[in-house]
Every structure is written in C-alpha cells, then in structure tokens.
Amino acid sequence: MTPQAGICAEPNLHGYYLMFNVAAGHEDEVRHQLAGFPALCHQVAEEFAEAAFTGLVAIGEAAWARLYPGERPAELAPFPTPGAGERQAVATPFDLFVQLRGDRVDVLHLAAQRLMAKLGGHLMLAEEVMGFRNQDCRDLTGFVDGTENPQGEHRAEVALVAEGPFAGGSYLHVQRFTHNLAGWQRLSLKEQEDTIGRTKQDNVEYASADKPLTAHVKRTNLKDGHGKTKEILRQSMPWATLERQGLYFISCCATSCHFSDMLRSMYEGDGQGHCDHLLRFTHADTGAAFFAPSETFLSQEGL
Ligand code: HEM
C-alpha cells in the first residue's frame, strides 16, 4: 500500500489548502477522478523536482459513505466538539480536503489548476487558504511550531494506519484558527512562554515542574495507560491576510483518538479547571474530520 506523499511530507515553504463539497449525483465521477489524483501529483512532482511538491486528498467523514459505499475506516467519526460556551470546538464538515505543498507557489497553483480541470465541474469550493512558512517555522504568536513532531521514519509510524484494508491511510483533523494577536502581544514575554510551556526565542522546553497545568504543551502531551506518549504528526502552517491571521492546523495519525483526547484536554482541561490558556488568544473557526486513503486504495476504488 503506497501512502499519499503529503501525509508524511517534510516541512515546505508554502501550503495551499482547499475544502470542497461534492455536487449531489456526481459521486461516481468524483471517485473516478480521484483515482487519477496520485498520478497528477507524481507528474507535477517530476516536472518541478526542485519544488519538493506533494499532494494529498482526504475524504470527509460524512462524505465517505457517498463516495465509497463499501468498507469504512473503523475510526472515521464526526469532528469532536469538546468544551462549552465561548470555549467550545466547532465542527464544520467538508466533503473533501486537498493539501498541496511545496517550495514554489506557482507549482501549487499549476497543480490546483490541473485538479480543477478534472474535478471542477463536480465540486463546490468551500474554502481556499494559502499557508506559508513564517521565519524559522514560527507560528504567528512568534513560537516555533512543530519541534516535538515525530522525525524521520517515526513520522510514518505515527501517521499511517499499519494494517488492514486501510493500511497506508491516515486520519486527518483540520482546524482553521484565527489569532487575537493584539491580545497576545499585550502579554509579557514570561506570560506568553508560560502559555506555551517553552521559551520563545531559543525554543527551550520548560522543565516539567515549571510547566503550568494550563500550558499548551502540558495539555497536549498526553500518555496512554502504559505511559507511552500519544503522538500525532502536525502538518500545520500559518496563514494571514492584512486583517486576520492564524494557524491552519492539520493533524495526521494512525488513530483518530489521539487528536480527540488532546482536543478534549485543551478545551475541557484536566477536570480541575485547567484548560489550555492558548485558547484565550486563538479561536478555531472550522473543524473537520477526514480519512486520507492510500494511493493504492484511491486508484483501485476509482476504476
Ligand atoms: C506543541 C502551537 C493547536 C497539539 C505546540 C508548540 C507550539 C504550538 C508553539 C510547541 C512546539 C512544538 O512542539 O511544536 C499551536 C498553536 C495552535 C496549536 C498556535 C493553534 C492555534 C494545537 C492543537 C493540537 C496541538 C489543536 C491538538 C489537538 C500539539 C502537540 C504538541 C504541540 C501534540 C507537542 C507537545 C509536546 O509533546 O511537547 N503547539 N498549537 N496543537 N501542539 Fe500545538
């Protein structure tokens, strides 16, 4: 089973994120065209080798049964919405998520045009966001993002389903966060660092005893019953216009429960009132769950 290259891709300079809904009655044609998506991506990657291009298509939780009425990935479930009131995660389902990544924006644009030439008549575009590398992989809060991501071969171990009919696939969770940067910048450096649980300039992890229970890394570094860290592979990138900015957050994992557990820990806290204080300065406007099947699955099922 060959996984889609975009799942474990190494960090790039640019990301182009597209959300679509599938027009009613066009499911067979979409499935057929998606079978050619891996070949389209390989073609672009070969033509522009220096762009380090990768593509990824993921199928929305609710759309899966329409597009692939046969077997379903066991853990594909609606996007979780922990929390309450102002601090509650939202679910905004989409049928398809396309991630185009590389080091040249023109190559991403070309790939998107080729995709739309094949699929455009069958899909409605619901969201289009350009992500970019900010300085040395810093989120727009100024903190380096991705440091504790799995590295090397471990990326595949964390992100890809290992066996069964969906081997080589990945559970994806996507949230578009908008930051309140004015509020964030009013914090002192120490308050910002306490909110994340790392130092800002040098990106050093706080000693365990110094991490507030409300620090982002405290709330997201979770262990299972055997003391093993619950890991996800984050493929997030900053996005920005002149007026609004934030993080396009993407989690890829062999299981959907690691992300759900982290999200609950952030929004609902530890049961003693310790929620993630980063959520005071950023708000998720979207939240959607997907499964990104292997290239092998896409091409076989589309015939
Ligand atoms: C760590 C930023 C949302 C999961 C971090 C770090 C930063 C950061 C700066 C520390 C460096 C690193 O290891 O990458 C953000 C921002 C977010 C966001 C700005 C939203 C606006 C999320 C969400 C999740 C998550 C929604 C999962 C539900 C993690 C994990 C770590 C991490 C697992 C590593 C923790 C560790 O083991 O130290 N994040 N994050 N993040 N974040 Fe986030």
What is the total domain count? 1
**Averaged pLDDT:** 97
SSE string, helices as H and strands as E: EHHEHEEEHEHEHHHEEEHEEH
User: Which cofactor or ligand species appear?
Assistant: protoporphyrin IX containing FE
Largest beta-sheet characterization: 10 strands, antiparallel
Helix content: 25-40%
Number of strands: 12
Question: Could you explain how this protein is built, in words?
Answer:
This protein has one domain (14-301). The chain has 10 helices and 12 strands. The chain has helices at residues 27-34, 37-47, 64-67, 105-119, 154-159, 181-185, 189-196, 216-220, 257-267, 295-301, and strands at residues 14-22, 54-60, 83-84, 87-88, 96-102, 123-132, 170-179, 233-234, 237-240, 245-253, 282-284, 288-292. Strands 1, 2, 5, 6, 7, 8, 9, 10, 11 and 12 form a 10-stranded antiparallel beta sheet that branches. It has a two-stranded antiparallel sheet with strand order 3-4. A hairpin with a 2-residue loop joins strand 3 (83-84) and strand 4 (87-88). It is globular, with a radius of gyration of 19 Å. Protoporphyrin IX containing FE is lined by residues 139, 141, 143-148, 175, 177, 196, 198, 216-217, 220-221, 232, 247, 249, 251, 259, 262-263, 266, 282.
